[in-house]
Design goal:
The complex is a heterotrimer of chains A (134), B (486) and C (443).
Chain A lengths: L13 E2 L4 E6 L2 E6 L1 H7 L2 E5 L6 E2 L4 E7 L3 E5 L4 E6 L2 H4 L3 H4 L8 E5 L3 H4 L4 H11 L1
Antiparallel strand pairs in A: 1-2, 2-3, 3-9, 4-6, 5-8, 6-7, 8-9
Chain B lengths: L57 H12 L22 H7 L2 H4 L11 H18 L3 E3 L5 H18 L6 E5 L5 H7 L4 E5 L9 H7 L4 E7 L11 H10 L3 E5 L19 E3 L20 E3 L11 E5 L2 E5 L16 H14 L3 H19 L15 E3 L11 H10 L6 E2 L9 E3 L7 H20 L1 H5 L12 H6 L6
Chain C lengths: L7 H11 L29 H13 L8 E2 L12 H7 L2 H4 L11 H18 L3 E2 L6 H15 L5 E5 L4 H11 L5 E5 L17 E7 L10 H10 L3 E6 L18 E5 L15 E5 L12 E5 L5 E5 L6 H4 L12 H39 L13 E5 L4 H10 L2 E2 L2 E2 L10 E5 L6 H12 L1
Parallel strand pairs in C: 1-12, 3-4, 3-5, 5-6, 6-7
Antiparallel strand pairs in C: 2-8, 7-8, 9-10, 11-14, 13-14
Helix pairs in contact in C: 5-10, 6-7, 10-12
Classes of the chains: A alpha+beta (134), B alpha/beta (486), C alpha/beta (443).
Amino acid sequence: MKELNELILPDELAYSKEHEWAQKNGDVIRVGISDFAQDQLGDIVFVELPEEGASFDQDDEFGTLESVKAVSEIYMPVGGTITAVNSQLEEKPELVNQDPYGQGWLVEVAPSDPGQLDALMDKNEYFEMLKGES
Amino acid sequence: MNIHPVPGTSGLSMNEPLLWERSQQGRSGFSLPRRDVPESDLPAELQAPPPDLPDLSELDVVRHYTRLSQWNFGVDTGSYPLGSCTMKYNPKTNEVQAARPGFAQAHPLLPADMTQGILQLMHDLQNHLAEITGLPHVTLQPAAGAHGEYTGMRIFYAYHHQKGRQRRKVLIPDTAHGTNPASAAMCGYQTVPVKSSEQGILTARAVAELMDEDTAGIMVTNPNTLGLFEENIREIARTVHEKGGLVYCDGANFNALMGIVDMAQIGVDVLHLNLHKTFAAPHGGGGPGSGPVCVTPELEPFLPLPRIVKTDSGYTLSEDFPQSIGRLHTFFGNVGVMIKAASYILSLGPDLKRVSQLAVLNANYIKEQLKDSFHLPYDRPCMHECVFSDIWQEKYKVSTLDIAKRLIDFGFHPPTIYFPLVVPGAMMVEPTETESKEDLDRFVQGMRTIANEAEENPQILHDAPSKTKVGRMDETLAARHPCLTG
Amino acid sequence: MRYLPHTDSEIQDMLTVVGADSLNDLFSPIAEDCRRTTPLNLPEPMTEWELDRHMASLAENMGPTQKSMSFLGAGSYDHYIPASLKHLVSRSEFYTAYTPYQPEVSQGTLQAIFEYQSLASRLLGLEISNASMYDGASALAEALLMALRIGKKKSIVALSTAIHPHYRQVVATYLEPMGFSIVELPWGQDGRSDLTDLPREDLAAVAVQSPNFFGCIEDLAACAQAAHSCQALFITAFTEPLAYGLVPSPGSQGADIACGEGQSLGIAQSFGGPGLGMFCSLKKYMRNLPGRLVGQTQDHQGNRGYVLTLATREQHIRREKATSNICSNQGLCATTAAMYLASVGGTGLRELARLNRDKAEYTRQEFLAQGCSLPFSAPGFNEFVIQLPRDAEEVFARCTGQGIVPGLPLGRFYSGLEDHMLICVTETKSKQDLDSLVKEVCS
């Protein structure tokens, strides 16, 4: 397990309390899980994601990440409709561990309320939250 | 005292490939019966290529499985303190009884006058289990503990249905085995978790806060998975009964209570037992088990069918029970396993009480001897098992997994690990009563040595086991790229 | 007592360490009002020799010891079990081990089960197999629940009434609290299931048994097509897997799931249990499969080995969202089945299956020659139905009294078939036995 100061937390991303990150990517918002989350989960063996076109509210469960001995739910940092799903993860779930902010992205969302992105935590607030939890 | 700290030793262990890697087409390990009738015509649509199965000689097969067996650790190999599994010695005479041709070759649909022997055995077993548990009506049909739990939940459903009010929820403690919520969900119930107190047991208050008229009842495990007796059980049962609910008890841990506690008296309505745990039938490497269910008179009409009925002229199987939940098994359950349990009960009789006393003594002895080496989250008298945690070893970056793997090098099967979830890094130790004092002392010595190694030489723990045929398996690979057939 | 090693002085020493005064003292957390007030009212313990005598006398009071001959099938089959099998499965390293949670010390069990999964999958023609279910009936129930999970919003399953009546009863028990509906499919004149009236909507699965309860081999390819045309999964159940040593496998005919009873594969009948629930499916449904799975992998030095895998489907991880509540399955029986298939071999299995069919065919022809009627014309394996000129129960009682249990009167399960009897002929019957059967039934 990484120490807090070993975690990678890019400055330009927004973070949710459930350890997802969100980033504006043109008209859509790209979503993934943070370095903290992938480190806690351990080796991810399977990623279950919704289909394109599915709609969720903010904080809804939209999928699961499986490690060998556990299953973790993932929650929408913003509400909206799924416009893209990272299909690479079917064959290579390890991308979520290796590159959680890059090739390990999970879904892209057409947001129902653009304001929700701004209301998420920034990197410093997220880091403080992690400090408080440990 | 001369206790060898490392009974695991090295020896020549044979490699053995997969069956089809040994195959030579045309070989056979079977004596084909003589053909004394002509070949019949087979219609064209029924002709298929022969199945792609390996061909081996009898010696090929015998060597194959003999070598495989030598890679296994069983109760006959050494101590197997797997919590909640009750890995007690499996008496060999029980195997002899189940193999008697009169039983082994009996077809389940033979007429009753040709099966009086087995029907009597099963009927007697029912009576004995009723006496041992205090719940008078018994079904032997469920094929395993989880099947028994399902039967219990199915009885809950039928009971409430008959009362004209279907309920949607079942209360399940946070210390419950995973089979409990899964069994409830298979009957359409929503599971509601109940938190245990800081003392590690349920409180009547926590139950009362959740119990309502939409709750079918509660599933408790007693003793629970922390090895503690649920001391508030009578009040909990009252709370549940007052709102019209039922109390199910998971009896997997019944090895602690024989001759000591009467389940009916403490308010349990439905109890399942594991014949392959408490009653010494072997575990088989993952079954077959047997999970009889014992109920109160009020729930008797719902028991599965068929049922064994004793009349003046002998025993018969009857389906004349209109409120029964129906069938759960093709025939009557795992009869071969029942014969072994029946043999065990006949061999011990009232001494079953001593079995429970010694099981509890053994667990408490280990608890006292190890609590200075490993963190004991509940430092109180335990029942037949005790639970330790790895938090003292965390500072050396040694985990429960490392400790378990190193125990293997010392010639022990590890205890149950990472369960129950309420204890971080849990190690659930259940020695059972068939382990002698020297066996326990050896285990204690092994664990103490490992505690020292954690401090002085943690790498040896990370590399463990080192004396086995294979090392730690890459479970990530197995899950990411499943290869389930060869 | 030979299973309890503690001497009195050891008990004393241990009580001192624990800080208890007596064995009774250990139970102080248990309040008086929870305790039994009476000692266990059980018979005095038997010595090993008394137990032998007691069990011997019970076992003698049983048909097989009374030297009668049985032609019963209907879900439990009399097949020869080689001595080598009985010897191997009695190795206590196999039977005194638990579920292989610690793979390093369980490679025997794990490789044996991996081999079983592989052989089962080859026999049934489907890509993957689990490590076993309890029996054929519960396997079918779980297969239907799996199809309903896959079908998400669907709530109907269709079952042929030519499936073993006990299997259908178990399915009804499992499906009732979940609010799913079961549509029953009739059988046609030839004894095969009639799938012409399948519900076209909301159908998650269609199940038939082959060979079916009447011994008839179903037209699986046609059934698969009918099911798939309604967007339903096709499930083939079976009670006699030996048939697949001869006839086309369910997988080759379009089944999505094949499930049933494996007792014929080297497991003693034992009055109906333990048996072996076999369960195979297409690989694409892998994550929906109930039960344990053994997978191949390697250790960190590259040595091949086996582990339980995909455990996130199971109860101990997913709890109420698990694919099933099953924990202990029929592990030793699955190992036995693999040993049996290994011993008989692919070549041997074909010959053994042939022999079963040929003996059954011979018997059918003899019944025909004696003027008996065979109501179902579809080809069969080792079971068939005859129609008698009188109530089958009468014939059953008379023959049984003469030491031959001739078969199963079908009036017990199907009204209207009171004069029908289901007869099973396996390799264990000689031509002489078969001639005696025909003579006795037709006399």
